[in-house]
């Protein structure tokens, strides 16, 4: 009896192909047909899982967010709020091949959302969740003299900006990590 | 006698057309022909000024940087280091239509540089200059307990990230300005 098709796995396979294309050439000119070719499947198969490119991009974005969360949870163990925050943010930054691919898809999604506001809602929700998590950790650490919401917003923006700078080759990896650590020292006190 | 053609003015006119296209649909699918149509000139005229789209994008990026600098210098008057920094960074953020257009072109350029490293060098140089300016102001303000280079890198990344979040509709303008002001308070002390 043939193995039941794992639809989620299939979708992930296609989203991974989309990520490779995002890294190699950006996503604006990419069609479902290109994704089919990259994944080595038929265009019909892609269309079975995603009716439009927007649907596939939204799925890929969600997949990236889930993977980042899963990796940072796996790395966490019992940890201080500062360690939890640092662990999560290091999983976001494009510091290895996996994370570079993920950042390419996020950047392509952001650039697309900037000209197509209707697809920005998933992004907005995911960013709001991350900000809430960061603010909770700052509160738990009892960081004095800070507005946790503002500080969390600034920290997330800083990491988004570092990711953008790394991906567009403006900045070196070790400098980006050092800038993140300097910010964590400002917010949580010296390590 | 006909007025001598102002070549720089012509280039700016074309770069402005490119910026409008960037805001409306992104830049990846845009050709010199689209820019000619948007500017209301012939494709030949565009080709006279720019041989390639990369050349035009690089010019447009430089133009945006010059305009940001000119606006923040005009706004400066005699000012404290903190006011100089805030003035510059507010000129960078997409807080009105002009700056939104500029941010669209910068974001399109960044997304392009992420998949075409050879055009990233202007960007890298411009970012390095901005970081140096910010570090100089932090030093001039005598901010205690900070590494000015790291703090400047973090501040620029934070503003890049806020710009990205504003443009992709993740975040409200007043929250972005509040997050910037919270960071300035961390770096320079309470206002």
Automatic annotation (TrEMBL), chains A, B:
Domain of life: Bacteria
Alphabetic keyword roster: DNA-binding, Repressor, Transcription, Transcription regulation
Cited InterPro entries: BetI_C, Homeodomain-like_sf, HTH-type_TetR-like_transc_reg, HTH_TetR, Tet_transcr_reg_TetR-rel_C_sf
Matches recorded under SUPFAM superfamilies: Homeodomain-like, Tetracyclin repressor-like, C-terminal domain
Pfam families, per database record: TetR_C_6 (PF13977), TetR_N (PF00440)
Keyword set includes Repressor: yes
Molecular function in Gene Ontology: DNA-binding transcription factor activity; transcription cis-regulatory region binding
Keyword Translocase: no
Gene3D superfamilies given in the database record: Tetracycline Repressor, domain 2 (1.10.357.10)
Protein name: TetR family transcriptional regulator
Native source species: Nonomuraea phyllanthi
